[in-house]
Automatic annotation (TrEMBL):
Organism field: Paragemmobacter amnigenus
Keywords from the UniProt entry: Lyase
Lineage: Bacteria, Pseudomonadati, Pseudomonadota, Alphaproteobacteria, Rhodobacterales
Annotated family: Belongs to the enoyl-CoA hydratase/isomerase family.
EC numbers for this chain: 4.2.1.17
Gene Ontology MF terms: enoyl-CoA hydratase activity
CDD domains per the UniProt record, alphabetical: crotonase-like (cd06558)
PROSITE patterns: ENOYL_COA_HYDRATASE
Entry annotated with the keyword Transit peptide: no
One Pfam family named in its UniProt record: ECH_1
Record-given protein name: Enoyl-CoA hydratase
Amino acid sequence: MAYETLIVEIEDYIALIRLNRPEALNALNARLMQELAQAIAAADRNDKVRCIVLTGSEKAFAAGADVKEMSEKSFTDVFFDDLFAAEADSIARTRKPLIAAVSGYCLGGGCELAMMCDFIIAADTAKFGQPEINLGIVAGMGGTQRLTRAVGKAKAMDMNLTGRFMDAAEAERTGLVSRVVPAKDLLAEAMKAAGKIAQKSALTAMVVKESVNRALEGSLREGILFERRMFHAVFSTEDQKEGMAAFLEKREPQFRDR
Ligand code: HXC
């Protein structure tokens, strides 16, 4: 499938999706968001994909929603159109592991998109921010919600109220990103992490993702119960038999996602 705003490659059970609007620092316009939701949903359904990596360019993961496209919109336009809500919900509902590999600017809707992923690997050049307040608007795809869960109230208020950028070191210190790597190694490191995940059973990885996400939705009691039931459920899979047999036989497991 050919996209206008993305480059998609699938190899070795990894789908690599690159945002590709270099003229606008990968600003998220309607076309890009539709294509991205479509490409991620297709990868999610593809049994030749076990992990998805989302990245941008060296200069920008994404500098936010496209201000040119948004500037003339009225309240009723964005209310009835529900700008990017369907695409954001679809991306956030992805069942397979989704890694964001972030270099350069990761701002506004770009930061919100990165936070919809399961974890973020950042280049040492990465800059995160929710600068919407500078435009007289507020974050609209999770910048006040996912950021607060990721870094806590003090940092989230600071970022959303001042619009300042956080560098990669601060992002790692506060838990927004899982690791920081030299910019030149970003894609290789992200692909290496994806490669590790792609060696596992897709079924088990999807159960892990669903279980961790439960920690952020609902009570601890419900989350623990969900995890325990999932722990029970994976004993019905062929991959559990294979994984444990391989360990006992001191060999690598051959997972079949069953
Ligand atoms: C449209 C953008 C853009 C954006 C950059 N560009 N960000 N176009 N929407 N969000 C364009 C510029 O207009 C310019 O195009 C080209 O990309 C290069 O950008 P420069 O500004 O010349 O680069 P630089 O001086 O290096 O500054 C980089 C920057 C700055 C600091 C990232 O571009 C910037 O502040 N961008 C806006 C960031 C922002 O406010 N994001 C939040 C958007 S609101 P030309 O044609 O002039 O060369 C949002 C809400 C989400 O995201 C809610 C969704 C529901």
